[in-house]
Every structure is written in C-alpha cells, then in structure tokens.
Amino acid sequence: MPNNRLFLSVAKGFSLMEILVAMAIISLLVAVAVPRFGNQGDKIAREEINRLLAAIHMVRDLAVIEDKEYGIDIDEKGYRFLVLQDTDLPSTNQQSQGKGEKGTQRSQANKTSSSSRGSGTRGGETKGGDGNQSQVPVSQGPIWATIEDNPALAEHEFPEEVEVNIAIDGDNLFAESEDDVQIFEKQIDIFEDGEEEEQIEPPKIYFLSTGEQNQFTIGVASIEDYQDNKNEPVFFRIKGELTGVLEYQGPLPGDLFTDILRDYADYLEQDE
In order of start, what are the domains of the chain with their CATH numbers? Predict the structure, then answer.
C-alpha cells in the first residue's frame, strides 16, 4: 500500500495549456502528412489553409482561457499571430491595476489605429511618508506584440505555389492588382527615433477574450500553373463571423479574387 500511495502522488496530469499546444501541433502535422488526391499544387493550397485553420482554432481558445486579446497580421506573403500586452514600467512599489484596464484592452483590440491610450494612467503619482517617495507603475497603454514562445503560432510564410486573398467586414482587400494594393505597408514617421522599437499596427483580424471576432474571409488557391484544371480553378477559404462561428469551405469552384465573398450555400448542399 505505501508504494501505491507514492505512485498516486507522483502521477500528474496535463494542464489545459499543454493539451491545447499538443492538439495544435498534431493538427499541423496531419494537415501536412495526410496524402491527398490531385496534383502537388492543389495539395499545397489545401495544406496551407488547414495549417492556418488549426492555428486560428488554437489562438481563439487561448484568448478565452487566458483572458487576453489576440489577432493575426496576414497578407499575401504570410502571417503572424499577435497578442495585446500591457506595457507597465517596473517600479520599486508595484501595485495591482484596477479591473477597468481589461476593458481598455478590449476596446483597444477593436481599434485599427496604432495610437495607444495614455489618458487613464496614473504615471507620475508619488506617495509621501518620512520624506521617501515611491513611484506608481507608469502605463504606456497596451501594445500588440508578436507571439514568440509558441511554435504552433510561429510566423509563417506562404509558399510560392499558392496565392492568397482576404476580405474584412465584407471588403475584398486584394480585389485590385497587387501593385495598387499595399494595405500592410509600414507607415514611416520622418521624426521617429531610429533606436525605438518597431510599433506593430493593430491586426486586421482579432479574437477577443469574450469569444468574439470580427468578420473575415481568408482564401487560398494554387497559382494557375498548379491548378488541377486551369479552365475550372478552385480555392479554399476560412470564414469567421462576429458571433464567433468559424467555417472551413473547399474546394470551391471559381476565382479566388472575384468569388471570395460569393455565397456557395447551394453548392455546398449539393456537394453533401
């Protein structure tokens, strides 16, 4: 009996975070390893959309579990996942912040402007007492930062065999020529100090701790030379709704750039 008690005390389970990471890694491996019919081009397009879908599922769960705001910065070249972080400066007298700051973070996640909120901070306040002063932590407002400690959410570059299109809140972002559309181009301030860290712009697609998200569609297709049938091109897409619904669809017949927002309800019903 003593040995059994020892065994039970040593045995430990897995945390929810460890399970989520393991599931995400397995999903990515399955997306890459499972053999599929069709030529190599369509296979790569399908793998890319499945990889992205698995990562989005994971980051949505993390947003709710960790009570944090997440987002994805994506364009035709690749994507990276972001998290909204506090930027409180350390001080000799750390004080807990009020619950109201969480509301500020959620409001910040919905803003597409890069300006941070500093009006609600208490920087510069001091306490008196025996001639000694202690500074309250100074908040510069929450900022978006790249996720670097989770391999399943690492920055990813799309292969040259596929092309990507994105629609946000019903607007087709890449409907025009690539030469005319540069929505993700970094804004340069001529008065900016060269030593300052890069200020990451708020993501176009965000996932809130409340389980909500903005409306988006991400489409991936093989380039023309890699399509199974060049006369009947297909693409794959991920659709996200405001209510938190996430849907994968594909292969869908049509052009990635003109049909990304097309209603395929009747086609999907027939396919079933």
Answer: 13-114+131-271 (3.55.40.10)
